[in-house]
Amino acid sequence: MLHDPNFRPDEPERALLESCVHASVLRRPAPIRGHERARLSDRLATEAADALFSQLAPVCPVQDANHIRRNQPGYDFLVDGRIRVQLKGNSFVESIGWAHSPDPAAADLAVDLLLAVDLGVVLDGRVGRLAGKPIPVRPFVDYYLVPGTVVREWVAAGRRVNGRGAHIYLYKYPLQPGTKEEIGQTRELADWRGRFDVLASLLRS
Predict the structure, then answer these.
(1) Model pTM?
(2) Which residues, at least 6 apart from 162, have a Cβ–Cβ distance to it below 8 Å?
(3) Biggest alpha carbon distance in the chain?
(4) Neighbouring residues of 22: CB distance < 8 A, sequence distance ≥ 6
(5) Tens digit of pLDDT for each residue in 99-150?
(6) pLDDT digits over 39-54, tens only?
(7) Higher pLDDT, 66 or 93
(8) Nearest one of 72, 103, 77 to 89, comparing CA atoms
(9) Helix pair 11-26, 34-53: axis angle to 10 deg
(10) What is the number of helices (H) and of strands (E) in the chain?
(11) Which burial class, exposed, middle or buried, applies to 100 when counting CB atoms under 10 A from its CB (0-12, 13-18, 19+)?
(12) Which has the least CB within 10 A, 16, 90, 114, 175?
């Protein structure tokens, strides 16, 4: 039975990301550049995925798709030699979200499972304009496990703020009703937080 591995970044890296968040909200210089923060977030999301997949080691192999795939950009891990898993991760404190190609048949959507790691939930960004927002802060990262079929349905629905790709996102606090950001959210995403049973079900199929 898969369970939450209770992953938390090492404190120096967590504190660095939190200081980046504070700098962004307060419009101050950040300790690292944006692309460096993105690389750090990607690496920590991969570490979080590895912590989850380590539970499968006695049962089935988990392969880094960068070592095995050929012209198949959609997935990042191959579980049990057949389950294609795409990883998304970021360190936003206001929302959880990611982007896809707008075509549900696009190569980046040819996956069986989307695993999203929310690093932002271990960061306290309640400063400045966010000081009074009810943004959750938890001791460990949140995992979202969404079947590929569901992700493709969300993309096909076409809910987005602008025309550049398909952005699936959910804010962590209430937005002003009727705004584009509020209307374009994928509220169903909340139902897939901590759904480790989705991967377990794919392994049994």
Answers:
(1) 0.95
(2) none
(3) 50
(4) 28, 125, 127, 128
(5) 898 899 998 899 999 999 999 999 999 999 999 999 999 999 999 999 999 9
(6) 999 999 999 999 999 9
(7) 93
(8) 77
(9) 140
(10) 5, 7
(11) buried
(12) 175
Among positive and negative, which fits the CA dihedral 52, 170, 17, 113?
positive
Beta-bridged to residue 72, according to DSSP, are: none
User: Whole-angstrom Cα distance, residue 77 to residue 87?
Assistant: 8
| Residue-wise burial string across 189-202, b where 16 or more C-beta atoms lie within 10 A, e elsewhere | beebbebbebbeeb
CA distance linking residue 92 with residue 97, whole number of Å: 9
pLDDT, tens digit (0-9, with 9 covering 90-100), for 76-88:
999 999 999 999 9
Buried b (16+ CB within 10 A) or exposed e, 2-22: beebebbbeeebbebbbebbb
